[in-house]
Design a protein that fits this description.
5 strands, alpha/beta
Length: 169
């Protein structure tokens, strides 16, 4: 069951994408498929949702999305570079018009001084070439809340991309 804020954001995104005939795909790490879950919780989402990749470990990011091993070894799984490679990988491996990726540290453990709990990187990409990336430092607010806020951020980024994308005919 979605909270009201997430449900409202998911419905708005689906309606915008339906009107513009745009398809969505996701690549999720720390959210474990929650963005896709939020979208598919809404009846009629199949008109907009293409597919979702849950790539929780580096091997999955590399195998399923083509994230370069060098990117993962040099920057780590939780990095802007990896988020961007994940979003590009979605477009390369799906037929969607819009893609979003999320990689971060939801906690309660796993953080470090350089990459603390609550650090999440996002990237969104469209077939038309528009790219967005964001870094959020939510802090140690609890695993569920980091993940909830990450879903909202991803939905917002997809809405931003959809708004700036010309409708398909």
């Amino acid at each position: 069951m979605l909270d009201r804020e997430t449900q409202t954001a998911a419905i708005a995104l689906l309606e915008l994408c339906k009107a513009k005939k745009l398809m969505i795909a996701t690549a999720e790490s720390c959210t474990g498929g929650l963005v896709m879950g939020a979208l598919t919780d809404i009846a009629g989402s199949s008109a907009v949702v293409d597919r979702g990749f849950v790539t929780y470990n580096n091997e999955a990011k590399h195998e399923m999305l083509g994230v370069p091993a060098d990117t993962l070894s040099q920057h780590g799984a939780v990095s802007r570079e990896t988020a961007e490679a994940m979003a590009n990988g979605v477009l390369a491996h799906a037929s969607a018009d819009l893609a979003v990726s999320i990689t971060g540290i939801a906690g309660p453990g796993g953080g470090s001084a350089a990459k603390p709990v609550g650090l999440v990187y996002f990237a969104a990409a469209s077939r038309s070439g528009h790219r967005i990336h964001r870094e959020q430092r939510y802090g140690d607010i609890g695993r569920a809340e980091v993940r909830r806020r990450s879903v909202l951020e991803a939905l917002s980024m997809l809405s931003e991309l959809a708004s700036s994308t010309t409708p398909k005919h």
